C-alpha cells in the first residue's frame, strides 16, 4: 500500500509540474504544423466535399481557409509541391478577392498575403 501511495504522489507531482508548461505551449490553439500538414489539412477540411468553403460560407471560415493556404511556404513542400503550385497559380485572383473582402470586413490580414 505504501508503494501505491508513493506512486500516486509522484504521479500527481509530475502532472502538476508538466501541465502549466503544456498549457503554455499550446495556449490559444497555436498549433505547430509543417507546411505539408497545413496543405493536407487545407485540402481535406476546407477544399473538398459538401463542406468546401464557398463565397457563401461564414466570414470566419473563409478567413481560416484563406490564411491557412497563404501561410504555406511552397519551398517547404515535398510531395505536394506540384499540386500546391498549380492550385495557387489557378486561384491567385480568387485568393486576392478573398483577402480584399476580408480586409474590408476588418479582419487582420497582415499575415495573409499572396507574396
- As a percent range, the share of strand residues is under 5%
Poorly predicted regions: 10-14, 16-28
Radius of gyration: 21 Å
Count of the separate structural domains: 2
In whole angstroms, how far apart are the ends?
64 Å
3D shape: globular
- Number of H- or I-type helical stretches: 4
User: What does the main sheet amount to?
Assistant: none
* Helix/strand structural class: mainly alpha
Number of strands: 0
Average residue-wise pLDDT: 77
Which range best describes the helical content: under 10%, 10-25%, 25-40%, 40-55%, 55-70% or over 70%?
Answer: 55-70%
Secondary-structure element order, N to C: HHHH
Question: Can you tell me about this structure?
Answer:
- With 115 residues, the protein is mainly α.
- The chain folds into 2 domains: 1-30; 32-104, no CATH class.
- The protein is 63% helix and 0% strand.
- The chain has 4 helices and no strands.
- α2 runs antiparallel to α3 and α3 (59-70) crosses α4 (81-104).
- The longest helix has 24 residues, at 2-25.
- The model is unreliable at 10-14 and 16-28 (pLDDT under 50).
Amino acid at each position: 500500500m505504501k508503494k501505491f501511495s508513493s506512486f500516486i504522489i509522484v504521479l500527481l507531482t509530475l502532472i502538476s509540474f508538466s501541465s502549466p508548461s503544456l498549457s503554455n505551449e499550446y495556449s490559444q490553439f497555436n498549433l505547430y504544423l509543417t507546411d505539408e500538414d497545413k496543405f493536407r489539412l487545407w485540402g481535406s477540411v476546407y477544399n473538398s466535399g459538401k463542406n468546401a468553403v464557398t463565397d457563401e460560407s461564414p466570414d470566419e471560415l473563409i478567413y481560416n481557409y484563406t490564411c491557412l493556404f497563404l501561410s504555406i511556404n511552397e519551398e517547404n513542400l515535398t510531395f505536394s509541391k506540384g499540386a500546391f503550385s498549380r492550385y495557387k497559380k489557378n486561384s491567385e485572383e480568387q485568393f486576392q478577392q478573398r483577402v480584399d473582402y476580408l480586409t474590408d470586413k476588418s479582419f487582420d490580414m497582415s499575415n495573409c498575403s499572396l507574396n
